[in-house]
Amino acid sequence: MNDLQEATFTPRSGESWRDPFGMYRALRDRDPVHHVPSERQGEDYWVLSRFEDVLAAAIDAASFSSADGLTFTYGEREKLGIEAPVVMMDPPEHTALRKLAIKRFTPQAVQALDPMVRRFVVERIERLRETGGGDVVAELLKPLPSLVVAHFLGVPDEDRERFDRWTEAIVSANATGDVLSATDAVGEMFGTFTRLIEERRSTPGDDMISALVHGRLKGGEEVSMAKILGMGFTMVTGGNDTTTGLMGGALDLLTRHPDQRALLREDPARIPPAVEEFLRLTSPVQGLARTATRDLELRGVKIPKGRKVMLLYASANRDEREFGPGAEACDVTRKVKRQLAFSYGPHHCIGAAAARLQARIVLEELLARCPGFQVDGETGRFAPGHFVRRYETLPFRPGPPA
Fold it and tell me: Can you tell me the distance from the alpha carbon of 267 to that of 273, in angstroms, rounded to the nearest whole number?
């Protein structure tokens, strides 16, 4: 089968996301350090597709830098027009800022969200049951991450509706690489964050903005307003569509594999480890780029200094060399020791525990309240954007009662 698939990398977006896995398989097997040429000089890049190589690059921030952006587009940082957010920093600057922010993402802090998240999930599921179904993305899978991100940022209740609108605009623009199309939303959101920052100076809360306002970087200096705004921007762009992608992909997998759904219904204690399998197979962030800080040689292929290198997390997470001959199969009993859906090393996703919590609760409540639910992945529509694979719409039917 691999012989029929050309070993070449073509960026996906929208409907072409439906099945990128044959492309990944061919790259892993025949060209694991793949060169993508460009008609324009100086815009070519390389693609890593095997687990071992992607993991090593993710850990090695000294050789694979995030400072020049995370896409295969050159000059990304300059186009963004704001001070580099934390995802575009390298250690030690990145490490110092991350240590302050992560204080609000402790296991205890994330677990404390369970009642709020569960109330929201139950309310939206019951609404879907009453109406006989609908678009589960619009009704549940998109607004839930927005609620959680707003909570961590300390967005007041009176601003939540506007925050949801800004989030939708910014996430959509970021997915297509045209952040400038959401200038108004970014400006309004930054205006609200600026006001929140000033309020938190005198009245700190349990949110991440408070942690940054009252924290001190290495050397004792305060976190600049620009860095705090950049962190807020990162939370919005990184914590929404990715979690939506995980949950939509998980529901699709359970619809396509009723035997695996039955295992979770029989024993709900299997759901938390099953989330790791869904993360592995869905890998919402299919890949992100780094920049080579020196001339590199990998598997006999030379990568010049200054060139972009795509780390294909989704391909790595299906690598038979790491997960065995059944790597592409859905097995909710699989013991996943490590996977790259949240990357690895210094840039491991700060919101990973929150994403896992949301997925777990959605699965628990759906399997309890709508054990026969069905989603229609064939008519569901994939969202545009070259880096996050997610359903933009996903028809849902609650199925017969238990």
Answer: 12
